[in-house]
C-alpha cells in the first residue's frame, strides 16, 4: 500500500513543481510546431521516426485526435477498427506485447484520454528489437506529454446509463415440471411431479408454497444503471520544463437491486504525471508516475450463476410473515430469533435441498470488496554526445511497476426456514417451520486471495543519425533491453533479455534499406543454446520520386519488402508447465501406490521425460510486402500488407519418431521421450486500411475501411494414425479448429437405431437422440469419427468508421464486422441435461408427435453423453456486424466564449454497442451465467480552460 501513496505523492509533486517552474520562464507559443510534430512523428521501437519513413508492417493511430470526436473507456477501442492487422491478435498470432512509454505494461491501466498515439508493430522487422517476448507483435502506447505554452486545463465529465441487451429465457415452474416429467419418462423413469403439483404451480395463487422463481424479473433487477466519470488534465511548459498531469474518477453501479446488491459498485480513481526537464542543452530527463485505485464492492452472492442453474420450482426465497398464524408460538419464536427478517415483513426461505439461495445471499451472506492497486514509475535520461561525434546520442531508462490485488470480505452465516403448509380452514397457512443453518456474524473483516506482481524495465542505447550531402540519411542503434516480472505463487520470474542492433540508410527518402537484429537470451533452454540470433532486412522504394513516374494523381506511394527470422521462447511451454522452465531436463520421479520390498517401503520409480540437450528457440520466419500511399491531395489514403511465414520448432513429445521401448507401459506408466522442437505452423494473410476524404456542400466527410484476413495451418505434427483414421490428421487444417462429429439428424425410431453403427458414448441410445456418421467405417461411432467443423476464431475482420463535420457539429460512427468463423452452442442454455434448468429452447424438443419437425433432441435426465458433445448439430456461423458507437459532438462557437475564462467547450451525446446484425443475434447478445451485456447511452461535456 505504501507504494500507492508514494505514487500519488510523486504525481502531486510533479504537477505543482512543474507549474511553479513554468511560471519562472518566459513562455513561447509553439502550437504549430506541436501539431506538426504530432502529425509527422511516429513512435516505433526505441525511437521516433517521420511518418513518411515508416517501413512495412507498422500502423499508427492518432488517439488524441480520435478522442475529440469519440468517447471511450478502453485503450484498445480503436485498434481493431481504424487500422488493419489486429483481430484480438496481430497477424493471427496471439499474445501481443503491450509497451507503454517504453515500459512493458498492461493496456487496461491507461485510458484513451491519457494517450497521444498508438503504434501497432506487426512485421518481424518492426518488433525484433524488443526481443523474444515481442515476437508475436507489439502494441506501443505513447501517453500525452507537456507542451510549450501557458498552463492549460481540460475537464471532461461523462454520465450515462447502461441498459441490458437481453436476458436468457427460462421456463416457468409448471412448464419446467412438465418437461422434466417427460425427460424422466424418456429415460424409462417415473414422473417426479403430479398433475396437481403442476397445476398449483401454474396458477400463481400462492407463489410461496408453489414457487415460480424468475431471477431476471423486475423484482430483482433495475431497468438500467448509471456510469459516471470525471477527468481533469493540466499541461503546459516552457523551454526548461514541460509537464502533463491528469486525474480522474469513475463509478459504475449495478443492474442488481435486491438486498445488499443495491449498493454494488465499481470505481476507478487514477492520477498520472509526466514531466520533461531540459537540464542542459545536451541533457534531458523525463520522469513519469501513475497510480490507480480500483475497487469492486458487492454482496456475497453468485447471482448470475444461480440465475442460470436454480430451477424455478425449488424455493421461495422471501416468504411473508402474514402466512404465520398468530398463535403459532414456536414458529414466531424461530422468526423472532432470526437476525434476518427483511423489511419487517419477510423471512428467508429455504429447503433441505436448497438451504441457501442467491436471493437470501444478497440479503444475509455478507459483502465482498475486490481491491486492486497499481503504482508505476519510470525515468529516462537522454544525453546528446555531439561533442564526441555529431549525431551520436545515448539514452537509458528504468521503470518499476507494482500491482497488488486482494479481497476484503465480511462472511456471514444465516438461517433459512422451510414452511410446512396447511389449509385446514380454507386459505393456505404455515403450520410449522423447519430451519436450516444458523445466524452468525463474526464482524471480522477477512483479507484473502492476495496476489502481487512486480515488473522491472531496464535498458540503454546508443543511436547515431546523420544526413550527408542532404540526400544520404544514415541511422544506427545498439540497444540493450531487459524486463522481468515476478508474480506471487510462481517460483520463476518471467524474463526478457535482449541486445538489438539496427542499421538504416535511405537516399533522399526514395530508396530504403534497414537491417535490424537481436540477440535474445533465454534461461528456458540448455546452457549451450540460450543465445539466439534474429536477423531481419527491409527494403523500401518510393517510386513517386522517380523521373519516369511523371505527373500522377499519386501524392505518395511507398513499397516495402521485409523478411526475417525471430527466435522466441514464448512457445517453449506445456499445459503442465506454463512457464516452460527446465523442459530440457530429464525427470525421474516416484510413482505408484505399491512399493518393492528391497526399497524399504519406497514407491516405484518412473520416467517423466527424457533429456533434450538440443532444444532451441522457436522461430518466426516471415516475409511481408507493404504498399501505402495517397492520391488526389489525400482524397484517398491506403495501406496494404501481405504476410506469409512459419512458426517453426513448436515444442512437443513426438512419440512416432522414437522407439516404442522409450515408453514405459503398465502401471505406473512413464516415458523417456523428451520435449523437442518439432511442430511447424504456416501462417499467411493480408491487412488493409483505406480512408476516403471529401467535402460535399460544406460537409467534410471521412470514411475509413480497414480489415484483416489471416490463416494459420498446421504444417507438421507428430501423428501416428492408421489408414482408416487419416481424417483425424490436423495437418493442413487451421490450428484454431473446431473438431467434432458429423450429425445425420435425430433417430426417428428404434429400427433406425438398430440399423445404424453403434454409438459408443456410455449410455443407451434412444429415439430422439442425435445420429452420427461413421467416418472410418469400423461400425462404431466414437471419438475416432471426428472431423474438422470450422474455425472458432474470426478469419476476416472488418472495421468501418465514418466522420461527418458540418460547421460546429461532428458525427462519428464506428462498426465492426466478423466473418468466416464458427462456434458451438454448448453452454448450459443449450445443453440441457440432468438436473439443469430448462431454457425455452427445449420447446422444440423431439417427441413421437414432433419427430418430423423437432430441432432439439429428446429430453433426458442423464448426462446426455451422446447428444451433448462437439458436433455440427450445435455448430453456428459467427458472422455478424456490430454498430459499436455513434456520437454527435457540438463545439460551442468561440465567439460565444469571448471574454470568459473558457477557451473551448464541447457537448456530446453518444450510444455504444447499439446494434448487432446477425442470424445469431440472440445468441451473441445473451450472456449465460454472467452479468448481461449492455448498451450505453452517454452525455458528456468537455471544457478547455
Overall number of strands = 46
Number of helices: 12
Q: Uncertain regions: pLDDT < 50 for 5+ in a row?
A: 1-39
Return the average pLDDT rounded to an integer. Answer: 91
Give helix % range.
10-25%
End-to-end Cα distance: 34 Å
The biggest beta sheet reads: 22 strands, antiparallel, barrel
Gross morphology is globular
Radius of gyration: 33 Å
What proportion of the residues form beta strands (DSSP E)? over 45%
| Helix and strand composition category | mainly beta
Pfam family, one: Plug
Organism: Alkalitalea saponilacus
Keywords: Signal
Protein name: TonB-linked outer membrane protein, SusC/RagA family
Write the SSE topology:
Layout: H1 2-22, H2 31-40, E1 41-44, E2 47-50, E3 58-61, H3 63-66, E4 97-100, E5 103-104, E6 115-121, H4 124-127, E7 138-143, E8 149-164, H5 173-186, H6 195-203, E9 225-237, E10 241-252, E11 265-280, E12 283-299, H7 303-309, E13 318-320, H8 329-337, E14 346-348, H9 358-364, E15 366-384, E16 392-413, E17 416-422, E18 429-436, E19 440-441, E20 446-468, E21 472-487, E22 494-507, E23 511-521, E24 534-541, E25 554-568, E26 587-595, E27 603-609, E28 618-631, E29 636-652, E30 663-664, E31 670-671, E32 676-696, E33 699-716, E34 737-740, E35 743-746, H10 750-755, E36 758-759, E37 770-772, E38 780-781, E39 787-791, E40 796-806, E41 809-819, E42 822-824, E43 875-877, E44 880-891, H11 894-897, E45 904-917, H12 921-925, E46 934-944
Amino acid at each position: 500500500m505504501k507504494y500507492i501513496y508514494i505514487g500519488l505523492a510523486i504525481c502531486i509533486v510533479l504537477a505543482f513543481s512543474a507549474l511553479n517552474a513554468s511560471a519562472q520562464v518566459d513562455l513561447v507559443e509553439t502550437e504549430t510546431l506541436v501539431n506538426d510534430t504530432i502529425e509527422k512523428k511516429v513512435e516505433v521501437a526505441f525511437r521516433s521516426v517521420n511518418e513518411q519513413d515508416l517501413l512495412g508492417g507498422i500502423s499508427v493511430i492518432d488517439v488524441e485526435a480520435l478522442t475529440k470526436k469519440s468517447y471511450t473507456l478502453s485503450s484498445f477501442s480503436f485498434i481493431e477498427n481504424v487500422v488493419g492487422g489486429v483481430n484480438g491478435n496481430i497477424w493471427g498470432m496471439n499474445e501481443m506485447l503491450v509497451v507503454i512509454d517504453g515500459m512493458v505494461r498492461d493496456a487496461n491501466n491507461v485510458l484513451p484520454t491519457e494517450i497521444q498515439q498508438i503504434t501497432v508493430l506487426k512485421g518481424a522487422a518492426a518488433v525484433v528489437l524488443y526481443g523474444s517476448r515481442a515476437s508475436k507483435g507489439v502494441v506501443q502506447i505513447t501517453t500525452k506529454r507537456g507542451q510549450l505554452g501557458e498552463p492549460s486545463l481540460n475537464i471532461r465529465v461523462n454520465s450515462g446509463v447502461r441498459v441490458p441487451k437481453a436476458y436468457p429465457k427460462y421456463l416457468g415452474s409448471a412448464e419446467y415440471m412438465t418437461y422434466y416429467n417427460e425427460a424422466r419418462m424418456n429415460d424409462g423413469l417415473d414422473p417426479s411431479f403430479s398433475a396437481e403439483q403442476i397445476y398449483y404451480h401454474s396458477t400463481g395463487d400462492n407463489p410461496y408454497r408453489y414457487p415460480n422463481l424468475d431471477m431476471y424479473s423486475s423484482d430483482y433487477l433495475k431497468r438500467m444503471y448509471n456510469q459516471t466519470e470525471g477527468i481533469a488534465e493540466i499541461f503546459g511548459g516552457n523551454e526548461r520544463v514541460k509537464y502533463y498531469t491528469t486525474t480522474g474518477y469513475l463509478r459504475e453501479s449495478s443492474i442488481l437491486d435486491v438486498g445488499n446488491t443495491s449498493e454494488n459498485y465499481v470505481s476507478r480513481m487514477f492520477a498520472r504525471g509526466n514531466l520533461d526537464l531540459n537540464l542542459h542543452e545536451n541533457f534531458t530527463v523525463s520522469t513519469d508516475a501513475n497510480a490507480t485505485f480500483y475497487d469492486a464492492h458487492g454482496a456475497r452472492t453468485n447471482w448470475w450463476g444461480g440465475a442460470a442453474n436454480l430451477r424455478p420450482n425449488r424455493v421461495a426465497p422471501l416468504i411473508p410473515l402474514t402466512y404465520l398464524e398468530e398463535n403459532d408460538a414456536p414458529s414466531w419464536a424461530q422468526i423472532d430469533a432470526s437476525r434476518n427478517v427483511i423489511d419487517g415483513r419477510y423471512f428467508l426461505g429455504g429447503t433441505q435441498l436448497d438451504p441457501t439461495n442467491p436471493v437470501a445471499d444478497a440479503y444475509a451472506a455478507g459483502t465482498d470488496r475486490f481491491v486492486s492497486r497499481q503504482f508505476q514509475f519510470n525515468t529516462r535520461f537522454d544525453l546528446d554526445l555531439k561533442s564526441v561525434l555529431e549525431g551520436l546520442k545515448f539514452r537509458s531508462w528504468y521503470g518499476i511497476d507494482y500491482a497488488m490485488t486482494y479481497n476484503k470480505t465480511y462472511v456471514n452465516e444465516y438461517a433459512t426456514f422451510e414452511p410446512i403448509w396447511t389449509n385446514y380452514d380454507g386459505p393456505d397457512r404455515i403450520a410449522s417451520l423447519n430451519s436450516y443453518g444458523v445466524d452468525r456474524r463474526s464482524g471480522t473483516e477477512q483479507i484473502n486471495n492476495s496476489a502481487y506482481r512486480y515488473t522491472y524495465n531496464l535498458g540503454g542505447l546508443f543511436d547515431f543519425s546523420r544526413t550527408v550531402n542532404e540526400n544520404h540519411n544514415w541511422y544506427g542503434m545498439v540497444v540493450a533491453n531487459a524486463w522481468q516480472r515476478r508474480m506471487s505463487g510462481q517460483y520463476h520470474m518471467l524474463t526478457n533479455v535482449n541486445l538489438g542492433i539496427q542499421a538504416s540508410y535511405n537516399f533522399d527518402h526514395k530508396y530504403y534499406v534497414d537491417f535490424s537484429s537481436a540477440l535474445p537470451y533465454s534461461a528456458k533452454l540448455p546452457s549451450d543454446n540460450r543465445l539466439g540470433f534474429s536477423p531481419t532486412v527491409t527494403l523500401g522504394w518510393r517510386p513517386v520520386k522517380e523521373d519516369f513516374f511523371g505527373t500522377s494523381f499519386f501524392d505518395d506511394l511507398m513499397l516495402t519488402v521485409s523478411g526475417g527470422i525471430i527466435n522466441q521462447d514464448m512457445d517453449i511451454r506445456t499445459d503442465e508447465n506454463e512457464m516452460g522452465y527446465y523442459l530440457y531436463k530429464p525427470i525421474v520421479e516416484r510413482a505408484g501406490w505399491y512399493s518393492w520390498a528391497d526399497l524399504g517401503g519406497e514407491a516405484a520409480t518412473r520416467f517423466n521425460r527424457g533429456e533434450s540437450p538440443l532444444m532451441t528457440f522457436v522461430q518466426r520466419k516471415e516475409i511481408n510486402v507493404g504498399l501505402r500511399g495517397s492520391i488526389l491531395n489525400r482524397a484517398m489514403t491506403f495501406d496494404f500488407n501481405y504476410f506469409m511465414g512459419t512458426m517453426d520448432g513448436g515444442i512437443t513429445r513426438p512419440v512416432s519418431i522414437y522407439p516404442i521401448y522409450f515408453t514405459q507401459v503398465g502401471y505406473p506408466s512413464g516415458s523417456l521421450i523428451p520435449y523437442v522442437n518439432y511442430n511447424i505452423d504456416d501462417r499467411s494473410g493480408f491487412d488493409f486500411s483505406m480512408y476516403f476524404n471529401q467535402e460535399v456542400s460544406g460537409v467534410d466527410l471521412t470514411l475509413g475501411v480497414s480489415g484483416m484476413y489471416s490463416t494459420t495451418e498446421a504444417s507438421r505434427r507428430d501423428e501416428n494414425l492408421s489408414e482408416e483414421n487419416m481424417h483425424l490428421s490436423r495437418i493442413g487444417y487451421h490450428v484454431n479448429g473446431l473438431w467434432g462429429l458429423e450429425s445425420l439428424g435425430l433417430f426417428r425410431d428404434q429400427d433406425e437405431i438398430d440399423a445404424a453403427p453403434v454409438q459408443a458414448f456410455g449410455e443407451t441410445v434412444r429415439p430422439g437422440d442425435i445420429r452420427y456418421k461413421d467416418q472410418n467405417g469400423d461400425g462404431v461411432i466414437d471419438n475416432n469419427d471426428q472431423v474438422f467443423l470450422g474455425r472458432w476464431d474470426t478469419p476476416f475482420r472488418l472495421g468501418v468508421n465514418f466522420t461527418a463535420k458540418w460547421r460546429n457539429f461532428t458525427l462519428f460512427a464506428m462498426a465492426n464486422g466478423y466473418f468466416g468463423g464458427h462456434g458451438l452452442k454448448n453452454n448450459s442454455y443449450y445443453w440441457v441435461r440432468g438436473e439443469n434448468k430448462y431454457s425455452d429452447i427445449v420447446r422444440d424438443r423431439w417427441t413421437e408427435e414432433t419427430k418430423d419437425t423437432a430441432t432439439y433432441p429428446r429430453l433426458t435426465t442423464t448426462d446426455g453423453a451422446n447428444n451433448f458433445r462437439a458436433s455440427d448439430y450445435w455448430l453456428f456461423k459467427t458472422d455478424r456486424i456490430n454498430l459499436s458507437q455513434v456520437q454527435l459532438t457540438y463545439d460551442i462557437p468561440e465567439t460565444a466564449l469571448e471574454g470568459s475564462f473558457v477557451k473551448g467547450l464541447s457537448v456530446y451525446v453518444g450510444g455504444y454497442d447499439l446494434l448487432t446484425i446477425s442470424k445469431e443475434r440472440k445468441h451473441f447478445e445473451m450472456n449465460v451465467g454472467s452479468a448481461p451485456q449492455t448498451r450505453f447511452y452517454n452525455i458528456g461535456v468537455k471544457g478547455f480552460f
